Amino acid sequence: MDRAIYTAMSAANAALNRQAVTSNNLANTSTAGFRAQLAAHRAVPIEGETLRTRALVAESSPFHDASMGPVTHTGRSLDVALPQNGWLAAQMADGSEGYTRNGMIQVDSEGALSVNGRPLMGDGAPLTVPPQSEITIASDGTISALGAGDDPTAVVPVGRLKLVNAEMTSLLHGDDGFFRPGVGGPLAQDESLRLSPEALEGSNVSPVKAMTEMIATSRGFDMNMKVIRTADENAQKANQLLSVS
Fold first, then answer.
1. Selection from 130, 129, 127 nearest residue 118 by Cα
2. Distance between CA 35 and CA 234 in Å, rounded?
3. Are residues 191 and 209 located together in one domain of the fold?
4. Confidence of residue 80 (pLDDT cuts 50, 70, 90)
5. Enclosing domain of residue 229
């Protein structure tokens, strides 16, 4: 079998993985706070008794586009936009902390605050507010509540969002969309962080760029498959010649 099949196969497999990453980015163009994932690959020259004319394709460590997405004023009291390298802390199913830039906070009928279905963390515990109360969030993350039917001056603070400061390269991306600390336990709260109330940061994915990447990757995959077919056809013709002789 022609060894060119293996080199083309490694390139085709890399194209499939890159297509999966690009498709996921495109599917999250409307997800608040989403950061595009980037697929990285590198050429690995083949060592041996041959000319160094061929190389396999190997995946490098994946990383993300850390640029900010567009910030839009929504007027919704539970929406917050985070600064660069700012994260909201949430409680994961195993009790650990995960971090997200999605500032679209939800509140259920019992007053529990959550993002993407995970409870939001405050000072060492998940945050809750009085049910059916009117909620406001200050720039430092302080949550204030006004009970239904109460006097407007009766607003009282009920908790504070846990805001942490971390570069994206120091965090590990989970399959559930949340990030985890790479080393050590939960990150400490950063008192200096300030968020933008009643606003949301959009996804930093460009739909046009993502579609262009998908087309280019698809064509690259087709080219490698053509190399594999050609190598297989050449091997079949060579076997025919050898059988005749």
1. 127
2. 45
3. no
4. very high
5. 4-66+205-244
